[in-house]
Specification:
Structural class of chain B: alpha+beta
Largest sheet of chain B: 4 strands, mixed
Oligomer: heterotrimer
Largest sheet of chain A: 3 strands, antiparallel
Helix content of chain B: 25-40%
Distance between the termini of chain A: 61 Å
Strand content of chain A: 5-15%
Strand order of the largest sheet of chain B: 5-8-6-7
Radius of gyration of chain A: 30 Å
Number of helices of chain B: 4
Structural class of chain A: mainly alpha
Radius of gyration of chain B: 22 Å
Strand order of the largest sheet of chain A: 2-1-3
Distance between the termini of chain B: 80 Å
Chains: A mainly alpha (about 270), B alpha+beta (about 160), C alpha+beta (about 450)
Chain lengths: ~270, ~160, ~450
């Protein structure tokens, strides 16, 4: 018995010593540090901070300036991310409008929106044709670049809005409202096409003049009985949510709205 | 590598291995009633005759006879040879940690394991019938490994 | 000046070409739909007659209470408090004032009328879309007064189907094993009840051990395992007449029985010599067919709703797993591959899923997987639970749970539970006694 213990002990110690000598991670080796890439952080703040609200003309000049700057800085790819104007402490209202220019994906016509923004800045002055005329010339040049820019920056812009703590964009506000009103029927089959498209005609106050289900024919198709149920739930949601949380201006833009209700995300898994 | 490093590593490994050995599962209970997973105690065991236990036990999900089980069954075979007019029913059981229907099949298989072994000692199959109760007739109502081990059994019952 | 007009042109033209704004709504709430179930109106004469026949004060309220309760139990509806209802049943049934119902936030409304006509019970009901302000459905039923509970269940099925798109499951019964006594001395009886717990009846006396009862698709017959005379065999029981008969003439234990979808066969396990295989017996010509022939344990067979496939439990791989094969026994394929033991596979009436019990690391799970074994989803975990059974619309699973006993071996109980396919709405199915082995019937009204 004792002999066995001694043999066992010596073998174990041998094992321990061997492992100790060859344990790789315990031996210090030089760490491979990848070469440091220096990145120049561009402080947009310094160049564009406006301590008080100037007249619209000045704002427009600055917008054009900024757009030019952003366009030129597109060249070195690393810089793009840093161009988010999120650190800019401009007066909220103005920035909101300027960012809306970039946000309106549905609105490729830059000219119109900028015109509208101008009229919002100074509600008494309807059309200052001089400044607008100046704007038209420049914006034609800029719209091409900003279109390109838009694709790249769109994501960043969304983030930048949250980051700077501004209110939700028009679309997000409407979505949030309808999310709350839509009771998704739990009985729907989760492996089918669960998309209902509803076209709405709205009054300026957000109440509904008319609602129409696109794909109406699908409502009575055999085997698609759940579609009728889904469509009805979407209609109920829209009726419940009246008046819809529509933007306070730009009625022409959104007087006809299409809501695409898709229950797939909620019911999957 | 210098000596201090080796000693440091050695110490670390020693400590780690001690920790690991301490985690090894305790196979033997303090009362010594379980070996592996099979009940080896005498609680709940009855006797067909003096020195002839009436039952054998099994490990979880198993239908294999242990050495102790074969020993018991040999004694039962001896007793059956001496009392050639007695017929028996082998009742197979399972513990509650399984689905009901599968447990019925498992009990039947356990009882047949015991029957087959008795037959190797020359006991005619006409004298032995098999009945499974699955998990329906536990002998111990506890919900712990020891109780469950007592329920995993094949019991030899006099039929006449 | 020219510039002014140019500008106006440039501004106005593009305005006309506004793209239609599309907003994607991909989220909503999963709150139960607020629905108002108005007590059914009933005229004085009918009311008094029903009181005499059925001993119920107000049959109109009784029936609507069944609908209300069913809808609430489903987890998909939120029946609103009756005290807040502004319109009386008689008026609401004719043409509801939707503003009143809108006020209490009801999105749907059920109204109706009960009357005694030629000794028969006649019930009309209407379902209204409160927000759209129009009638969605109107139906009438005539039946014997004693069927009044079933009328409530049938109305619920109609309302449920219209609002969710799925067939209902309320006009159904559940057969189960009622249990009493200590864990080591359980008395078990076959029992049957309405899906909402009412009309409970015992079908056996408890003199012999009975297990795993299952409905036939016609709901008239039940198959189960009985230890009558200490011989465990599969039996058939006629619910209406109470007649029992043993299935086949097997020289050993038969167990785990189920009906084929057409009700013509019984599929079950037969155990002999330590081996359990799957067999079928045709109830008409009594022909027995062997389906599996393997030294492993093959049990818990369940047909697909089209009768073409069978899913079953086998330990041929060494441990309990789930397999699928053709109904003639060919083409056996294993479909469970996760960690743990799998048992009690049961094919959904919709044909799309197989529910099962899983045991892993000492815990029991009820789960579902697609019929090819993919998409395994565990719905609930417990110390001990097993044997799920599907509602006829393939949405709800009923199963049973047993509790752990304390160190003295006390505190054992077995109860029925149900859960929605989505994992929501896990709840106790109330029974007077302890209960296990539940099986759901198909819709009675089919």
């Amino acid at each position: 018995m004792n002999r066995n213990i001694i043999i066992s002990f010596s073998f174990h110690s041998l094992l321990v010593i061997i492992t100790a000598m060859s344990f790789p991670f315990l031996a210090k080796k030089p760490i491979d540090i990848p070469p440091v890439i220096s990145v120049e952080l561009i402080q947009i703040t310094d160049k564009t901070s406006i301590p008080f609200a100037p007249k619209a003309k000045k704002i427009i000049e600055k917008v054009k300036e900024k757009e030019k700057k952003l366009v030129s800085e597109q060249a070195p790819p690393k810089m793009v991310k840093k161009e988010k104007p999120d650190a800019v402490p401009l007066p909220d209202e103005k920035i909101e409008k300027i960012k809306k220019i970039k946000d309106e994906k549905q609105n490729p016509k830059k000219v119109e929106t900028e015109v509208k923004q101008v009229s919002e800045f100074e509600k008494k002055e309807l059309f200052d044709t001089n400044s607008i005329a100046a704007l038209i010339d420049k914006s034609k040049v800029d719209s091409a670049e900003t279109n390109k820019k838009l694709d790249k920056i769109t994501q960043d812009q969304d983030k930048s809005i949250d980051f700077s703590g501004l209110s939700l964009s028009e679309e997000d506000a409407l979505k949030a409202q309808i999310f709350g009103c839509w009771s998704i029927p739990l009985g729907l089959p989760y492996n089918e096409n669960l998309l209902v498209r509803i076209k709405l005609q709205l009054n300026p106050d957000g109440s509904i003049i008319r609602s129409e289900i696109l794909d109406h024919a699908r409502m009575n198709k055999p085997g698609q009985g759940f579609y009728k149920v889904l469509a009805e739930s979407a209609l109920r949601a829209v009726k419940l949510c009246q008046p819809l949380r529509v933007p306070s201006t730009g009625y022409e833009r959104w007087k006809e709205l299409q809501l695409n209700f898709d229950a797939k995300e909620m019911l999957e898994g | 590598m210098n000596l201090s490093k080796i000693l440091k590593n050695g110490f670390l490994i020693l400590v780690t291995s001690l920790l690991l050995t301490a985690c090894a599962t305790q196979k033997k209970t303090t009362t010594g009633q379980l070996q592996g997973d099979v009940y080896t105690g005498s609680d709940s065991v009855e006797y067909l005759a003096s020195g002839v236990p009436d039952r054998v036990f099994f490990a979880t999900n198993e239908t294999v006879l242990t050495t102790a089980s074969r020993d018991t069954l040999r004694k039962q075979a001896g007793w059956l040879r001496k009392n050639s007019d007695i017929n028996v029913v082998l009742e197979g059981h399972a513990d509650e940690r399984g689905t009901r229907e599968y447990n019925l099949a498992l009990g039947e298989r356990r009882a047949n394991s015991a029957k087959d072994y008795l037959m190797t000692y020359g006991i005619s199959s006409d004298r032995i019938s098999v009945l499974s109760y699955g998990k329906e007739r536990p002998v111990d109502s506890g919900s712990n490994p020891l109780s469950w081990s007592k329920n995993r059994r094949s019991v030899t019952v006099k039929a006449n | 000046m020219f510039l002014r007009y140019l500008f106006i042109l440039l501004v106005i033209l593009p305005i006309k070409a506004f793209a239609l704004i599309e907003v994607d709504i991909t989220r909503g709430n999963l709150n139960p739909l607020p629905i108002a179930v108005s007590p059914l109106s009933i005229d004085e004469n009918s009311k008094n007659n029903f009181k005499k026949i059925l001993k119920k004060e107000n049959l109109g309220s009784e029936i609507s209470a069944i609908v209300e309760n069913n809808l609430r139990q489903s987890g998909l509806f939120n029946p609103l408090n009756k005290d807040a209802f502004l319109q009386k049943p008689e008026i609401a049934n004719l043409k509801p004032r939707f503003e009143d119902w809108n006020l209490i936030k009801a999105q749907a409304l059920v109204t109706g009328k009960v009357s005694l006509v030629d000794e028969k019970l006649r019930v009309e009901f209407r379902l209204w879309d409160v927000l759209a302000g129009k009638e969605m459905m109107a139906l009438a039923f005539t039946t014997v007064p004693s069927n009044w509970r079933r009328v409530g269940h049938i109305i619920t099925d109609k309302v449920y189907e219209r609002l969710t798109g799925e067939k209902g499951y309320f006009d159904t019964r559940i057969i189960y094993v009622s249990e009493e006594g200590s864990k080591t001395n359980r008395i078990k009886k076959l029992a049957i009840m309405d899906q909402d717990g009412f009309n409970n009846k015992f079908l056996t006396l408890g003199n012999e051990l009975v297990l795993t009862p299952r409905f036939s698709p016609t709901n008239q017959m039940v198959t189960y395992l009985s230890y009558f005379k200490n011989l465990p065999r599969v039996y058939l029981l006629d619910i209406e007449t109470g007649m029992q008969e043993v299935v086949g003439d097997f020289p050993g234990m038969t167990f785990a029985p189920r009906f084929s979808p057409d009700g013509k066969k019984i599929i079950m396990s037969f155990a002999q010599g330590g081996n359990s295989d799957i067999y079928t017996m045709d109830l008409e010509n009594r022909i027995v067919e062997r389906i599996t022939n393997h030294p492993s344990i093959d049990t818990s067979p369940s047909y697909s709703p089209d009768g073409k496939y069978i899913t079953f439990n086998s330990d041929r791989s060494g441990y309990q797993q789930i397999y699928v094969m053709n109904s003639n026994g060919k083409n056996v394929k294993r479909i469970s591959f996760g960690n743990g033991l799998y048992g009690t596979p049961v094919w959904s009436p919709r044909g799309d899923l197989i529910a099962f019990t899983k045991l892993h690391k000492g815990k029991f799970y009820i789960g579902v997987m697609r019929t090819d074994g993919t998409g395994e989803r565990l719905l609930t975990e417990n110390f001990y639970q097993e044997a799920p059974s599907w509602s006829p619309n393939g949405r709800v699973l009923i199963f049973y749970r047993e509790t752990k006993t304390n160190s003295k071996g006390e505190g054992f109980s077995a109860k029925l539970w149900s859960i929605d396919l989505t994992g929501y709405n896990e709840k106790l199915v109330k029974t007077k006694t302890d209960a296990s082995d539940p099986s759901w019937s198909s819709l009675l009204s089919n």
